[in-house]
Design goal:
- This protein has 489 residues and is of the alpha/beta class.
- It has 16 helices and 16 strands.
- Strand 3, helix 2 and strand 4 (127-136) form a beta-alpha-beta unit.
Length: 489
């Protein structure tokens, strides 16, 4: 009889244990469901990131004409915060890190500012352009002169020039102390030369801020750290916010090496021998005859359909050459609107364009919005690019396209070249999709269209064959913009 109550008690404990087990299993099931959904949340996050404007960035790396030097290009054609950044990289980690840190700092500053304006509902369009040029000294030192222009919609922008120097073989980064023989004494004499050069130059004197002149030209190492060593001169760059106001880019003080030959170290001294005169160069008349011989005189029929294919922002070694091969396959002529900053690195591609009968166009030096620039800045952007194209190909560009299609009377006043825009924008910079390129052309191209593409994108180069095959099948012939507009001579 005594065993029965114990059995009843044991049954209640079994029930309680069973309930607890059920609750535990239920809790574990809920936890598993939560964790199983977490990857979906991450995927959603990735989806948001993919739609972020920053995802429109394209980064390209290519070799330059200078041994051991590569060119990194970062571009974004996002309508709210476009930027185009070019900087050098080498086989020297210290140099790479220093240069990368500098350009990244400017890029971060720009993106933070444009993001702040967007969050504040301030409707301003920003712009950042960073490009560089290279000077090589006979000792093997490269001087990389990096020019930066940043604008975030306010009254003023930031214009800055920074110089980095590197030996092509040893990897040494040259400083002013390495250049001067008797460091302190030579620096004082160099400072005197620089001051004399500034005060004797009418243009520099006009831009000079007197209150900063003594401070910024004092004989300190920091004041003379931003220099480029060229074959026959040393150039000092002063940023706009330092000693100049209203200048078109950073003012440059150039000191002939011959005038300071006694101040510099022996390995940098100029040889005391006469320099032979440069070889004779073709005259303007010679060039005109050559151009006439190279011009394709094929007439454009008034009854056939025509289209002008145009390519902006190049040249680029891989994608531009693929485009040239495709154009040759279809016996097509096109117009290339080139950036001077890229022409200076790939002159051989410009020569190939010319020899193939394509039209050479000017697209400024480093892609700024010219409507926000001073007349002096506009003239420099256009003229320097025209000079680079002529030096590379033997011919000046015949047409001009302003970056972003932004043009006003001030821009028009700085060039005599016809200003060429477009009526079909393929948006190849945005989609980076070879298939989309063809779909867009099918929908929008008509007889007499001027089509905008970019030869710096490999997706455009890869999609061009299908585009040309379609247009040719529709009865189109391919002409330059000058032929289309009746401007060819």
């Amino acid at each position: 009889m005594s065993a029965h109550p114990r059995s009843k008690k044991r049954g209640r404990w079994i029930d309680i244990t069973f309930v607890i087990a059920i609750l535990t299993l239920t809790g574990l099931t809920l936890l598993l469901l939560v964790f199983s959904n977490s990857p979906k949340v991450e995927k959603d996050k990735d989806k948001v990131t993919a739609n972020d404007p920053a995802s429109s960035e394209e980064i390209n790396e290519s070799d330059s004409v200078y041994p051991g030097i590569r060119i990194i290009t970062e571009t974004s054609n996002d309508t709210k915060n476009p930027y185009a950044i070019q900087f050098p990289q080498s086989n020297v980690p210290e140099f790479n890190e220093t240069v990368k840190a500098y350009t990244s700092k400017l890029k971060k500053m720009y993106l933070n500012e444009t993001a702040y304006l967007k969050e504040s509902n301030v409707k301003r369009k920003g712009e950042l352009n960073i490009s560089f040029e290279v000077f090589q000294h006979t000792t093997g030192y490269y001087s990389f002169v990096i020019h930066s222009d940043m604008y975030t919609g306010g009254a003023n922008g930031l214009s800055e020039t920074k110089v980095f120097r590197l030996h092509s073989q040893s990897g040494q980064m040259l400083e002013m102390k390495d250049l001067l023989a008797n460091n302190e004494k030579s620096l004082v004499k160099l400072a005197t030369k620089v001051r004399e050069s500034i005060t004797s130059d009418k243009q520099l004197r006009a831009y000079l801020l007197q209150k900063q002149f003594a401070e910024k030209t004092a004989p300190t190492w920091d004041n003379y750290a931003n220099f480029a060593l060229k074959k026959d001169s040393i150039e000092f760059y002063y940023n706009d916010y330092e000693i100049a106001a209203g200048a078109a880019g950073s003012p440059i003080v150039s000191i002939p090496l011959e005038s300071i030959n006694d101040l510099i170290a022996d390995s940098f001294k100029l040889p005391k021998v006469a320099i032979n005169p440069p070889p004779t160069v073709p005259t303007k008349e010679d060039k005109k005859v050559t151009e006439k011989q190279q011009t394709d005189d094929k007439a454009v029929s008034g009854t056939e359909k025509v289209v002008a294919l145009t390519f902006d922002d190049g040249p680029n070694p891989e994608s531009t050459r693929l485009i040239l091969d495709t154009l040759k396959k279809y016996h097509a002529k096109a117009t290339f609107f080139m950036l001077g900053s890229r022409v200076s690195f790939y002159p051989e591609i410009v020569k190939e364009m010319k020899e193939a009968g394509h039209e050479l166009g000017n697209h400024t030096w480093n892609h700024p919005d010219l409507t926000k620039a001073s007349p002096e800045k506009i003239a420099l952007e256009i003229n320097n690019t025209s000079n680079a194209i002529e030096e590379a190909s033997g011919s000046k560009p015949t047409v001009f396209r302003p970056p972003y299609g932004a043009v006003n009377n001030s821009v028009r006043a700085q060039t005599t070249m016809p200003i060429i825009l477009w009526d079909v924008d393929t948006l190849d910079w945005k989609y980076r999709d070879a298939n989309h390129l063809l779909e867009h052309v099918k929908k929008h191209v008509k007889d007499g269209s001027t089509v905008l593409m970019h030869d710096i994108h490999m997706s455009t180069a890869e999609g061009l064959d299908a585009v040309l095959a379609y247009l040719q099948g529709e009865g189109y012939s391919f002409v330059t913009v000058s032929e289309l507009k009746g401007q060819s001579k």
